[in-house]
Amino acid sequence: LEDLGELVVLPGIVDTHVHLNEPGRTEWEGFATATRAAAIGGVTTLVDMPLNSIPPTTTREAFAAKRAAARGQCAVDVGFWGGVVPGNAGELAGLVADGVRGFKCFLVDSGVEEFGWVGERELTPAMQILAGLGVPLLVHAEVAGPIDAATRRLADADPRKYATYLASRPEASEEQAIAMITGLCRATGARTHIVHHSAALALPLLAAAKKNGLPLTAETCPHYLHFTAETIPDGATPFKCAPPIRSEANRELLWKALADGTLDFVASDHSPCSPGLKALEVGDFVAAWGGVSGLQLALPVVWTEASRRGHSLSDIARWMCAGPARLAGLTGRKGSITAGADADLVVFDDTATTTVTPESVHHRHKVTPYAGETLRGSVHATYLRGRRVAEAGRALATELGALL
Q1: Is residue 121 in some structural domain?
Q2: 5 conformational bin, left if phi > 0, alpha if psi -120 to 50, beta if neither
Q3: How far, rounded to the nearest angstrom, does the alpha carbon of residue 58 sit from its chain's CA centroid?
């Protein structure tokens, strides 16, 4: 027994949106570095996205290679999403049999050539298959039309200005994507989940889908809940992600949607790359890789903003533990402190303040938009199935993680 005084014990954070990039792009991130950073940040379970590894997790053979790469490297428990891409409908049932927890797709260019995007023609049969299998489809909900039109319009705009990048990914792209996906969800009955939602314009569509009983859920991300477009400096490419960080007014509507249940939970969308791909020296938002590194920092970032708005730690547990566990089919095992669940725990100092420094970041690379941010809350210790795996900014047991 340990007397923790005024510290808080939360369920281990479950992060269902993480790009680990192994095998194939370990110069971006990898199982060892990411899961140690996760443990330090209070994340005890994460689910790996099917890209940007090479090969992507779109075939049974590729999934076997990914699991082989992960074995013996993980400081926390790791599950896996498969991918829906053109031509792989015949792989979906086998991937579920092998253990993937659901599937991810893009409705627009993914940024990597090996993970193609899909439209209604590919999604209709795929979603019919997934409905029968009982696993969710996770959707990157932007469509190309509004983005392509904006890109043409902005051809001569300054690529170093954040306003240029923001205008290149209009809210209409998310709105049109969600309109299409809700129609397919209704037609097929497939469980459907919208990832990294950023556009307030599309929130009424999500609310209406839920009111009509569709099996549709949605997440947003810490960076959309913390940063605003008005405060992003020109040339500051660590802030680039897709969809983009939008206005302060948009952020407040995301918080309202999270509070009323239109948005179900929060996931990090940790999507790192090697520093050179961020075009840091030239500050070119058009050329830079789009992705935010924030896995380790998700809990204090969300608590910083939630506590300012009068939300409680119970809300944090709902948004960052129970909700993601439900999506991944892990309810009863992960995401709660209940009899029979894994003893995955975070000891959290909810009143401490910390400033993010490069030395405090344990992802493979130190590039993050959170550098210099002062956050409320600090992870004192993390326990995985009752064993301490991190303490005071250090990973301890580094190979206790299981593959889910």
Answers
A1: yes
A2: left
A3: 19
